[in-house]
Design goal:
Shape of chain A: globular
Number of domains of chain B: 1
Helix content of chain A: 25-40%
Strand content of chain B: 15-25%
Distance between the termini of chain A: 57 Å
Shape of chain B: globular
CATH superfamily of chain B: Beta-grasp domain
Oligomer: heterodimer
Strand order of the largest sheet of chain A: 4-5-13-10-11-12
Radius of gyration of chain B: 12 Å
CATH architecture of one domain in chain A: 3-Layer(aba) Sandwich
Structural class of chain B: alpha+beta
Helix content of chain B: 10-25%
CATH class of one domain in chain A: Alpha Beta
Largest interface: A-B, 40 and 24 residues
Order of helices and strands of chain A: EEEHHEHEHEHEHEHEHHEHEHHEHHEH
Number of strands of chain B: 5
CATH class of chain B: Alpha Beta
Distance between the termini of chain B: 37 Å
Strand content of chain A: 15-25%
Number of helices of chain B: 2
CATH topology of chain B: Ubiquitin-like (UB roll)
């Protein structure tokens, strides 16, 4: 926190003091936290980070929060696993999976919620709130419980039941809105002007979004302070992709990398909600909002706030964007589960299927070191996949042999 | 019956602090024109140099994003609400 300078509009550059504000008063552009990177550079080292906690808070010098306020359920520092069997299935070389299903509430949203609620405490808020497609709902409700804050979580009423249960159990208010995520989001933007609550992805959004940078920091640290050649990131609002790219750049800026990063950034969207991928494919500078229709509900944002910045990041780094159908999403979930033993939610299926597509199109190549960001757990979207027992039998050897011919059972 | 225009926090300094104002008008463009006449300063905040809506400004008529309708030419009928909402939220 000592290293934070203020807030700056990404559109027009106007500067603001640190406060729970999120848009430029002049042009409505998004505000972003600015840092004194020389001060960060003087404070951090690889050794100091390695000695820190096994959570996002090991990178506290690069987060916009006073460490003393940290609302910490242990978000972050999730495994980065080499995925050779997945790579082989896709005809690729070196592929790694950042397994962010292993966060406290089983999605990457714990990173941003932890930062946002910490900042909310620092600002003196008593109530935390959010608009959510589900994962953030889980995380805000849990972190609010941990911090002793009231919570109001707003979700679309068609959300998966698992995500409703895993939010409501924490005891806060859960408000189901008869509409899609963009309707929920709009209501929250209006409510944020009425109530003095910390809406983590509205008035606290500039701070909240910074939590996603830790995915880049961890990736580099876990690769021995090297960066990948190519990352594939799911795109909903576009914030995650934008911040992962920023994270790699910052590491170099504060002297933690030996070489300037040259990371190609690619995005993954579901075909039924692909406004950013559509603009990329059409070479357009305009992102046209869509009405989402996809099983990947955690990515179902039809009017992506950071879509323009995600598009810029993909273009500037010569990455790509894929839009994959619901069938491919389910196949992606199965492929990751069967090759690497990781059960992802639908957003992960989108990401795996997009990697497959980008590999087929030659956008991701076999000579690249690729990192795939798997951001949520499969148990959250159980209805998306059908999986039955291979056989259901009586408890006898004979029944087993009826189901599995003993002469061929070990042939594969 | 006039049209209600909902003003976001960021622009209430221009509307004398009011969160809602009421005008007559047949399209969104007309309504925004009247808004500028009554409360000068709105136009340069909502539009870029080319006269288009800034990309982080969303306008809704009866809860529908005007980009799904006819943009600034979207018709507005008496009793409807036009909401101006910053786009930068969520995710």
């Amino acid at each position: 926190m000592a290293h934070v300078q203020g807030l700056r509009c990404r559109e027009c550059g106007r500067e603001y003091e640190i406060a729970p504000v999120y848009t430029c008063e002049w042009c409505f552009g998004p505000l972003e936290v600015t840092y004194d990177y020389d001060a960060v550079a003087a404070a951090v080292s690889r050794e100091q980070i390695a000695a820190g906690p096994a959570s996002i808070w090991r990178y506290a010098d690069l987060l916009p929060v006073d460490r003393g306020h940290a609302v910490d359920l242990g978000a972050g520092f999730t495994p980065l696993v080499r995925a050779d069997r997945l790579a082989a299935a896709l005809g690729l070389g070196e592929v790694w999976v950042k397994n962010d299903t292993l966060n406290p509430t089983n999605s990457f949203k714990d990173r941003v919620a932890s930062v946002a609620l910490s900042k909310a405490l620092e600002f003196g808020f008593k109530t935390a709130a959010c608009a959510s497609t589900g994962n953030l709902a889980n995380s805000v409700a849990a972190h609010a419980a941990r911090a002793g804050l009231r919570s109001f979580v707003f979700i679309p009423s068609n959300l998966e039941r698992a995500k409703v249960v895993t939010t409501a159990v924490y005891g806060g208010n859960v408000v189901a809105i008869e509409g899609n995520y963009d309707d929920v989001n709009r209501l929250c933007a209006e409510l944020a002007g009425t109530y003095r609550w910390a809406f983590v992805n509205v008035n606290v959004r500039p701070f909240y979004a910074e939590g996603s940078k830790t995915l880049a920091y961890e990736t580099a640290e876990q690769l021995g302070w090297e960066t990948p050649d190519h990352v594939v990131v799911p795109v909903a609002s576009g914030s995650l992709l934008t911040k992962i790219r920023k994270g790699f750049d910052e590491l170099h800026q504060v002297g933690l990398l030996d070489h300037a990063p040259n990371v190609r950034v690619s995005g993954a969207q579901a075909l039924g909600c692909s406004p950013v991928a559509t603009a990329w494919r059409e070479g357009s500078d305009t992102i046209r909002p869509v009405k989402p229709d996809t099983i990947a509900k955690s990515l179902a944002i039809g009017n992506p706030a950071d879509g323009y910045f995600a598009l810029d990041a993909v273009r500037q780094t010569e990455g790509g964007l894929a839009a994959v159908g619901d069938g491919e999403v389910v196949e992606g979930i199965r492929l990751l589960a069967r090759t690497e033993g990781i059960f992802a939610e639908t957003a992960g299926g989108v990401t795996v299927a997009s990697l497959k597509r980008l590999a087929e199109e030659g956008v991701v190549t076999p000579d690249e070191r690729v990192v795939l960001y798997i951001t949520g757990l499969g148990l959250k979207t159980l209805d998306a996949v059908e999986a039955e027992p291979t056989a259901t039998i009586r408890p006898t050897i004979d029944a087993f042999h009826e189901a599995f011919d003993p002469d061929h059972i070990d042939e594969e | 019956m006039p049209v209600t225009v909902r003003i976001p926090t960021q622009l209430r300094e221009l509307s004398g602090g009011a969160s809602e104002v009421e005008f007559e008008g047949r399209t969104v463009a007309e309504i925004l024109g009247v808004l500028e006449e009554r409360h000068p300063g709105f136009a340069e905040r909502l539009h870029d140099d080319t006269g288009e809506l800034r990309r982080f400004v969303n306008i809704f008529v009866a809860d529908e994003d005007i980009r799904f309708l006819q943009g600034l030419d979207t018709a507005v009928t008496d009793g409807q609400t036009v909401s101006i909402v910053p786009a930068v939220a969520g995710g």
